[in-house]
Amino acid sequence: MTEVDNAQLGIPADAMRRLAEMRPGQATSLFTSDLSVNEFLLVREAGFRPVGLVLGSSIYHVGFQMGRWNRNQELTTLSQAMYHARELAMTRMEAEADQLGADGIVGVRLEIEFKEFGSDLAEFIAVGTAVIADESSTPEGQSWRNNRGLPFTSDLSGQDFWTLIQAGYAPLGMVMGTCVYHVAHQRFWQAMGNIGQNVELPQFTEALYDARELAMSRMQAEAEQLKAEGIVGVELRSHGHRWGGHTTEFFAIGTAVRPLRADHHIPAPQLVLPLTD
Amino acid sequence: MTDWNGVGLPPVADQRVRRAAAGGPWTSLLSAPAAAGLRVAGLAPVGEVMGSIVQQISLMGVSCGSYLPGGGQWLSTSRGVGPYLDALNRGYATALDRLTQEATAIGADGVVGITLATEPLAGATEFTALGTAVRARGTQRAGRMFTTALSGQDVAKLMTSGWMPVRLVYGVSVAIRHDDWQTRRQASWGAGNTEIAGYTQLVNHTRADARVRLAKRVRATGADGTIVSSMGLRMWSVEPSDNHRDHVAQASVFGTAIARFATTGPAPAARPLTFLPLQHRSTS
Chain A contact for B4, CB < 8 A? Predict the structure, then answer.
């Protein structure tokens, strides 16, 4: 322990010297990042420099849709709203990153917040950290931007991003699909017949299958547009939002990736047994 | 209890600092991993420090007309909401300043793991800053106090990678926007799917302004960058007069300004190591 300490005594002294030498207000290329310290250091290690926190936001009025209560169906007005509002937020975030001359955006968070002061009002927010690749980490003749000429986007954490780059893949863009679905209420005679029995409700099962399938296939279509090899880190979420028990949003989101090189070998990880909870 | 005029530290805090400066056992808010991390980075804890201020603070005297030149056009944040914003800034600044005073008095070089909080208190608001003062081992002194919201582990990781936390920075902004006919139409029940341009403008403007204020503070320290730790936005409606609603947005960004330094010693660079924990970890 003492040996390690002596070797590192350079660190506090050097750090203190830096503080002592600091000139307030000097022109520096200042960056802000939304990353945690772990993520910040790993993104640097992967050969990227954070250039700025980027953000896009939209406050959206989600329309109202009457549906037939006894039929399984997609509520297209709501699907469109959820999709369009997210798209607005994402596009604004991408525009900020584009202005910074970024190669990509990492650690993107996509959040929805329904506001108290209006019944159908929600804020859609996209936040991430714009990064620029060091020259040494950019393969010759290649760009990190995607086929639309925009910075790549990724909702992967800094840790996942580092691992992805190590394994020879590059993120292309966040892809998403959404479907707001109304699951039919049971018919009266049907509900009566099922009282007290453990039975599958086939129309419920089918409705959930249909809704998830719609969300996932829309996400896949986005990935195909980006000419991706695959999608990693897919999350399939269902949100009730404020529409009551029978109406649910199914939301699929992931990061479309392309290969950087042919072999995708990473060093075999060491096994560790953490002594913490 | 003596009467205190608000200059310097309150008498009890002053006495506590004197006791701490005189020696004896130190206190800290550090977790065990944080303490171990700081040790690796060459920092030693010297004591727990805090700063606090209670202020009466509210959005007073909001009336529609005065903020709305050009009828529903964008309005500057400097009028009307100005005193409220000043009070917020004064709250955070004073709490941090009193914390720094305590740390200086006990011979610290910096304060780590600062939590900055506001708490309602009988119609007023208390701003508190609470952290652990640390001192660098060795003879080199910084001449200025560094402050950070980052934990001991994070400070250690940064320092062993050649980055130094410089100062806890924040940006706060408040803006108010008149609900014009278009806003009301877009937010109405029958409007269908539509973006409410006025509200989007309000939140974007407020957030952007908070970020600009943060960047200004970072630039003033001379640091190289910032690690943002939290970002918040609150939006609510006010009724300055009958049958008339406006919306107020308050945005805040908190983070730590960091600066790059070159190590002269044989400091081991922290390199990431891939490993697989042999532990069940619940996915959330």
Answer: no
